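Pinned message: reference record for Ig-like domain-containing protein
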Amino acid sequence: MSVTFNRSSRFFALLLSGITQTDIVSQPVPLMTVQLGENVLFSCLYSEQEVEYISWFKQTVGEKPRLIAISHKYTHPIYYGNFSHTRFKVLENGSNNQLIISNTEFSDSAIYYCGGMNNYAMTFATGTFLIQSKSKTVVQQPVSDPVHPGDSVTLQCTVNSETCAGDHSVYWFRHGSGESLPGLIYTHGNRSDECEKSPEAGSPTHSCVYSLPKRNLRRSDAGIYYCAVVTCGDILFGDGTKCICVAGPTLDPVLLGLGAALVFCVVLLIFLVCYICKNTGKMSFSCKIYLLLCLH
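Predicted structure (tokens):
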């Protein structure tokens, strides 16, 4: 997927902004890519107890948000402006309100927000960025197996381009569970040494492979990793690679604390009993047993 490079700085500013995700309304997918002419579906999850109306907005980079439609679970959606229901369609599916765009065009590339309204107050989700793919494609290899803390894994991103074999700038983003939007974690800078021309005679296709090694993984490294390549005035995005970091068996810190407190109480009790027995001078059978415990 791609977006023109002269808008890239604005895009990254939006991508890295600290918008707070809420439990009232949320959009689970932060980034989507489609081929020109394909259909795309956006999901908006919301709390039926706290939301009465759902609104959808489209914001093209550098412009103000535009209202697409407002829907209520008991009425038909109302569409606004040039957003005809022939291409834009809102569906209600329980607590999942969906926006479908048919036969996508390049002008559909934008951020799509859903907002939940109740008692004249609106809560927004963090949005989903939609970008159309062109002749250049970015393919991210999946991680075959779940990894464990301390393991190492190499994420790969392959760019196939029919034109422009110049230097590329490569960026990696990670979208962790519970985070609002992907955050920039690494950049390769200008790279062209990892590209090779197609072996087919007369083929203009160039293939570039970029890798991101991750060593000594932690549970906090889990998430979806996106590769972004700046080339020939475009920013190309991959669909993301999901990295699942499975933790080994661990003890609950609460149980550990309770166990330590129990041991301390038992030791203190034995000490007190031994102290009382030694100072009273009455060596009963129970005192003798406790004294043996103290001596050992």
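Pinned by admin. Summary line: Residues 1-21 have pLDDT under 50 and may be disordered.
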